[in-house]
Amino acid sequence: MKLTKDELLVLSIVGIYTLASTMVSTFANVYMLKYTSSLTIMSTYSLIRYLVIGFFAWASAKLSTKIRMSYTLMIGLFLIICAVLFLLFVKDWISTRQWLVYIVGFVWGAGEGFFWITINTLYQLISHIETRGFFLGVSGMLQYLASILAPFLSALILSFAKVEDDGYLFLFEAAIVIFVIICIASLKIRSTASGKPFHIKESFTHLDKDPRWRYLVVCQFLWGMREAATVSLTGLLIYQALGSGSSYGNWLAFFALVATFANFIIGRKVNKQNRLRYLFRGCILLFLSGLALVSGTRTGAIVHGLLHYGFLSMASMPFSLMYMNVISEYGNPEQLIGRTVAREVIVAIARAVGLLIVILTTTLAPGSLGMNAGMLILYSFCLWFLFYCIRGYKRFQFN
DSSP label at 200? Predict the structure, then answer.
């Protein structure tokens, strides 16, 4: 199977972005945790960040009907750079003014909203149903290859730094340079949007008239609840179990290597006939990875990483194929963009609800007990998601 020039360009941008983003975001969370010493504050930071993503994804999509998509991509990258620069500027004040991390989360979330809705819309527009499984497999493989290199480079930099904080600062500066390079490369993206206005209201108000879409909306919400655990808190718990930034970086590189092979293999094997079987196995193994993580031990963190990174694509890829293929069937670009934005909003809301659950459990039971209870609740949504998928899958026809 061959990829088009547009597909290769977008995949290259996503791969390079993943390299820089993994270098900076993973250790930015660790960096802020060291200054705040509170997983509850970091949960609130993530809550703000992902609520903002949903709103600015909508704003970016609206703007993309008037300007080129390459420009909305650049706006997103510029906002992410601003968030990193702001973090560098206020780093010495965070320990006494912990609310500053919420500003970082707001600006960073705004940037990610602009960036990812543009990328996801381009994914939807430039890929084809016949080769979409291969395209998503290559996309996942490239992202995880970048995720291998990023932690390895990060761990190397941190090991050579006399003071670990100095290593973090160098990581952030290097990531900013890479983001600037991506901005330049994104100018070659050709906008494929029609320029006509779109509406996302009907994606939510017409659920009773479109049962298949309603089924996917509920599935996406349940999947997003699980993601609330993995978007930031899982990494912080692994970091605490492993004990150091360099060890954390080395293990992330190894986990990403495992995920790269998994994406390559699963991307070639998943099809319409075996989709549900892969989904079932993946969800069960993801739930088991959550049980391993809350043990709080080094061994548990490693087992979690192997299960999560090794089998995430087994569940996520079949579901993504179902979702993207259904969106493609709506035909005109306005409907397509509207449904893609609606998906991002659903994900943002689900993650926010999930993080609120963690904040509630850690407030009621401070310490590891509350955190573990919250994480177990979120990982249980792997099973709720699986149950709902199986229940409705045979009722609807999916390409």
Answer: S
